[in-house]
What we know:
By secondary structure, the chain is α/β, with parallel strands linked by helices. It is 35% helix and 23% strand. The chain folds into 3 domains: 3-256, Aminohydrolase, N-terminal nucleophile (Ntn) domain (Glutamine Phosphoribosylpyrophosphate, subunit 1, domain 1, 4-Layer Sandwich), CATH 3.60.20.10; 259-453, Glucose-6-phosphate isomerase like protein, domain 1 (Rossmann fold, 3-Layer(aba) Sandwich), CATH 3.40.50.10490; 466-611, Rossmann fold, CATH 3.40.50.10490. The protein has an 8-stranded antiparallel sheet with strand order 3-2-4-1-10-9-11-15. α7 (273-281) runs parallel beside α14. The protein is globular, with a radius of gyration of 26 Å.
Amino acid sequence: MCGIVGYIGTRQAYPILIKGLHRLEYRGYDSAGISLINESGDLLVYKAKGKVSALKASTEGCDTHGTIGIAHTRWATHGEPNQANAHPHYSQSHMLALVHNGIIENYKSLRAELEHHGMIFCSDTDTEVLVQLVEYMQTTHQCDTYTAVHLALKNVVGAYAIAVLDKRNPGQLIAARKGSPLIIGVGKDNETCPAGESEFFIGSDATPIIEFTDKVIYLKDEEVVMINRHGKCAITNLDSVSQTPQLCTLQLSLDQIEKGGFDHFMLKEIFEQPSAIRTCIRGRVNTQEHRVLLSGIQDHCAQFKSAKRIIICACGTSWHSALIGKYFIEEATQIPVEVEYASEFRYRNPALSPSDIVVAVSQSGETADTLAAIQLAKEHGCFVYGISNVIGASIPRASDSGTYLHVGPEIGVASTKAFTGQVITLIMFGLAIAQERKTLPTELFNQLIDDLALIPDKMQWVLDHTGDISQLAKIFTYCHNFIYLGRGYNYPVALEGALKLKEISYIHAEGYPAAEMKHGPIALVDEEMPVVVIAPKRGMYDKIVSNIQEIKSRKGRILSIVTEGDVTVKEMSDFCIEVPDTRDSYAPLLTVIPLQLLSYHIAIAKGRNVDQPRNLAKSVTVE
Ligand code: M6R
């Protein structure tokens, strides 16, 4: 959670940092702050409660000059979201300013100790402990800030990405990470420019950096970096042993992180799904040879051939895609698959063995619970396979092998194209294992490949036919509760549809397997209750028709998602949205799209901020 951006170079830092914060705002928007060292050598800190726009407004008329600075957008964990708790935090002497993403678990004992030594705190945050600790180390060890950061971090338990400014040293910026991401952007012309003219950027991800350079260094856990105006980028571990930085090239373009004519990122990302999924399967689903090419599996063939069990760990929307993955992988490979909430799995004592494959599914690749789950799996000797969208993120780096979604950056907090990307990747994962283990008849396997390749066009059909459901959404704007029902492969879609509605419209919604209704939830149904039923023609169609009858006879209002041309369910429904026919196991890739659009339009009709819903952040890097 929280976004960090930093700059050192020859340009004015303020506009770069504010723009960077806007790009990172999806990570948190409770408060924002910025720190600069101006031309007179003053260490300035400006903070505001609320969004980056509030920070920008509050700095109007203030001194914002300076060619070095750090900035932060916060998703509150310790301490309410107010100005005092916003980052950056000063040290007691106001010589240092620090921003932090993560959680310092032992902050209470550290704070008590520092208070015992006379240090006075101005906030309720765990972060302030860090900056005070660095200052304390500096004073007691009579050392420079870089050394003091090492000493301080050795005493810290928890996760952090930090950036530090030192008033006494306006030509250098210090940063470090453990468990929270941090990237260093290396100025385009650093190699050719004269000493004193090079520049560096830092960011929680690449979005604030890509406009300026595509050359980056991914800082590793427990690494501390010192960058200066003369092109120096020194990286050491916490024991001050020098590390060799690896320069990487970003696979990202600026237009991928902009709205491209859409009102919101979420809407853009919903409409991007056909092309995103096409990119996701390109080079991997080969319809000529009827093969799936996933190097993450083919390079570790023996592991997958002998696997006794697959455990998929994920959170939120990724957990829903994992459930669909389970149904498909079991069907295709006959390997038992379990799906675990990463947040529960990491604190259980699961019975794991080296013949288990643990799959982590995470859009961001940074979710703290999912990362901890795979660390636990590794301790038990399991083979870890990471499915993530963000290249170079912590989860793919911690995995033994894996697959990237390649659906492009997802900025809207509500996950849409990453969900369909994860579902199709898990389907390819199942097919690739089935190919190695020869668990499917050739004819069926070939048909599965051919049908998969048709999905992007079918997604486009859904968008072309149901793109504007804003009128339908208006009918439901004033409802307080929703029920979503599905069976088989569409049960996780019901969960996902309900989650989408909850998170962006703040309407209470529950997803159920349709047949479970009669065991209790049907008591909720009356003429006020909208029931969204996902009922495509295949799978358990007849069964779900009976479930709809049960709802109808209790006067529930039915909105159904049906296969194009369906008559039976359509006649039973108050409202109906059609999707093209596809095989049962691929239906979620189509049926979820109208549900994404429905929640988007209901949220818009309610005047919600769909890209930045309250209390949420895109990347949950805290437990
Ligand atoms: O980045 P991840 O896929 O690991 O994130 C997991 C969840 O936090 C995420 O899916 C969340 O539920 C989304 N807001 C759903 O739209």
